[in-house]
Amino acid sequence: MTLSEEDYIKAIYHLSKDEQKGVSTNAIAAQMDTKASSVTDMIKRLAEKKVVHYKKYQGARLTEEGKAYAAKIIRKHRLWEFFLVEKLNFSWDEVHDIAEELEHIKSDKLIEKLDTFLDYPRIDPHGDPIPDSNGNIKKVEKTLLSSIKKGKKGIVVGVKDSSSEFLRYLDKLNIALGEEITVLNKEPFDNSVLIKLNDSEINISAMTANNIFLKTN
Amino acid sequence: MTLSEEDYIKAIYHLSKDEQKGVSTNAIAAQMDTKASSVTDMIKRLAEKKVVHYKKYQGARLTEEGKAYAAKIIRKHRLWEFFLVEKLNFSWDEVHDIAEELEHIKSDKLIEKLDTFLDYPRIDPHGDPIPDSNGNIKKVEKTLLSSIKKGKKGIVVGVKDSSSEFLRYLDKLNIALGEEITVLNKEPFDNSVLIKLNDSEINISAMTANNIFLKTN
DNA sequence: AATAATTTTTAGACAAATCTAAAAATTTGT
DNA sequence: ACAAATTTTTAGATTTGTCTAAAAATTATT
């Protein structure tokens, strides 16, 4: 599988989480920052390689083989992210782009040895689950901060947007994985949320609240 | 710089150690396992990028910029090899191919943090020096076992051939970096060498002796 | 020094991955 | 339901890195 093919497989995998039907050509083009015509070409190639099902005008859908391949790439991505943060002392906003490259390194033995070295982590630096060596992904129980009721609280367990801009903003707010957040009030006007964090009260926008995952008990 | 361009730069670098003049098209083709015509094309591209000097029929020669680039790739390659052996417990015959992929990962910050994590190693698992962050390579003092006089001894500090076949053969002979070897006799008929290693005497072929580096005092 | 052998370069083709522009199919709006 | 809008596909071109075959230059031989 080429680098580009792997990127497409990953994109289709991520897009099909929300989607029941096939993932649309345009959606893939947007995700991959390319043109619809390029996507059509690539989907055909991937269909020949049996990693996607493809019928004209019906979008793309990963085969079982395709899903397993995607899980493997995601496993590699997240294990490398964990390595970069825990062993090399990168911060959580710096690791995505480097892991995008490292995830394409081929050796299976490498990734199993890395997993052992890291002591089999289950969660990456952004709170996302690391698939096991069989490609199984443990679903993490989590709720968007934006949909938590006034008065309720939870622990930060993940982010939806893991762009470095957003992560650096969270750093500035002192919001990190493991922090406890209590929803003090929700403003109906703009859906902003007043929260308590470390005994201080801060107001966060609807957009921000919509990108933070909490675990409630 | 693309992956392929980086591979050519590295090949030219390694070939120009023995060579005073430009490295010939054919020599590069052999090293890269490709055709001379492909090499000519690539050399022209590299010349446009100012990493090699090129005049028709005169072979290729790295510019200062090209040499610095090569040193950087080699630094990455050897640091990753050290990581694979020391942290992930790979054996010395398994790491070359994986490092060939890892050496192309772009981030400068990654390689500096890796260097720190590994505590600034100077020598890779095959005894080759790791260039520092400025691209300077410390020359290691070493002599081929094949050219050591009868009765003299030395410490194994490197190998010339680092193919996994050769390295596994050395494992079988219990020859590893740091071992002391004494040359007991040299057979004029086939240039084989009788050595003492850990109180046992073994006979090694001229070819083997020609791929082991010793440090003599 | 002329010819033969070898090396290197050029010319033209090809596959992968992309693009633009236009055609075809599907979906939407009234 | 049918025209308009949108989405998707096709057709043809481009770039990178490769190839084969043939031409040009260099090196070796007698």
Automatic annotation (TrEMBL), chains A, B:
<dbReference type="InterPro" id="IPR038157">
    <property type="entry name" value="FeoA_core_dom"/>
</dbReference>
<dbReference type="GO" id="GO:0003700">
    <property type="term" value="F:DNA-binding transcription factor activity"/>
</dbReference>
<dbReference type="InterPro" id="IPR022689">
    <property type="entry name" value="Iron_dep_repressor"/>
</dbReference>
<keyword id="KW-0804">Transcription</keyword>
<comment type="similarity">
    <text>Belongs to the DtxR/MntR family.</text>
</comment>
<dbReference type="GO" id="GO:0005737">
    <property type="term" value="C:cytoplasm"/>
</dbReference>
<dbReference type="Pfam" id="PF01325">
    <property type="entry name" value="Fe_dep_repress"/>
</dbReference>
<dbReference type="InterPro" id="IPR008988">
    <property type="entry name" value="Transcriptional_repressor_C"/>
</dbReference>
<keyword id="KW-0238">DNA-binding</keyword>
<dbReference type="InterPro" id="IPR036421">
    <property type="entry name" value="Fe_dep_repressor_sf"/>
</dbReference>
<keyword id="KW-0805">Transcription regulation</keyword>
<dbReference type="GO" id="GO:0003677">
    <property type="term" value="F:DNA binding"/>
</dbReference>
<dbReference type="InterPro" id="IPR007167">
    <property type="entry name" value="Fe-transptr_FeoA-like"/>
</dbReference>
<comment type="function">
    <text>In the presence of manganese, represses expression of mntH and mntS. Up-regulates expression of mntP.</text>
</comment>
<protein>
    <recommendedName>
        <fullName>Transcriptional regulator MntR</fullName>
    </recommendedName>
</protein>
<comment type="subunit">
    <text>Homodimer.</text>
</comment>
<feature type="domain" description="HTH dtxR-type">
    <location>
        <begin position="1"/>
        <end position="63"/>
    </location>
</feature>
<dbReference type="InterPro" id="IPR001367">
    <property type="entry name" value="Fe_dep_repressor"/>
</dbReference>
<keyword id="KW-0408">Iron</keyword>
<dbReference type="InterPro" id="IPR036390">
    <property type="entry name" value="WH_DNA-bd_sf"/>
</dbReference>
<dbReference type="InterPro" id="IPR022687">
    <property type="entry name" value="HTH_DTXR"/>
</dbReference>
<dbReference type="Pfam" id="PF02742">
    <property type="entry name" value="Fe_dep_repr_C"/>
</dbReference>
<dbReference type="Pfam" id="PF04023">
    <property type="entry name" value="FeoA"/>
</dbReference>
<dbReference type="InterPro" id="IPR036388">
    <property type="entry name" value="WH-like_DNA-bd_sf"/>
</dbReference>
<dbReference type="GO" id="GO:0046983">
    <property type="term" value="F:protein dimerization activity"/>
</dbReference>
<dbReference type="GO" id="GO:0046914">
    <property type="term" value="F:transition metal ion binding"/>
</dbReference>
<dbReference type="InterPro" id="IPR050536">
    <property type="entry name" value="DtxR_MntR_Metal-Reg"/>
</dbReference>
